[in-house]
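[step 3/7] fold_predict: job queued, chain A
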Amino acid sequence: MSTFDLTPLFRSTVGFDRMMSLLDSAGRTDEQAYPPYNIEKVGEDAYRVTMAVAGFGEEDLSIVAQGNSLVIAGKQKREDKKADAYLYRGIAGRAFERRFQLADHIKVTGAELANGLLHVDLVREVPEAMKPRTIKVTAAPKQVVDAKVAA
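[step 4/7] structure written:
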C-alpha cells in the first residue's frame, strides 16, 4: 500500500492542525485489533460504540471522554489462580486501550455492560447558537408617489 506525504499541506494551511493529524493517523494502519468493536448510527444524531470485552467486569473498565477524545481502557484487576489448569486459553484477558476521535459537539450519554459487550452511547448536541435559523422575508413598505403633475 502506498503512503501519502501530507507535509506540503502542513506548510500551506493555518488552523487545520486537528484535521491534518486526523488525516495523517487515518493513513496509518491500526495494528491493534483487540478488542473488536462496532460503531453504529442508531438515530439521526445518536451513535453507539459496541466493544467485545468478554471476561471484563464493570470494575475492570474505564471510559474517559475529554474534549474530542474518547478513551476506553480495560485491565483485569484480579489474578487467575488457576492459570496452570488451562489446556487452551482462547479468551483474551489482556489489558487494552482504545482511542476514538469524536466530532465537535459529540457527547457520551452513557455506558452499559451486558453479555460481554460494552455499549457506549453518544449523541450530537449542537448548541442553539450554531443551529441553522430561518429568516423570514418580508415585503418592503410601498412608497406613495405624489400624483401632482407639473403644468
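[step 5/7] annotate
The chain has two helices and seven strands.
The longest strand covers residues 106-114.
exit 0
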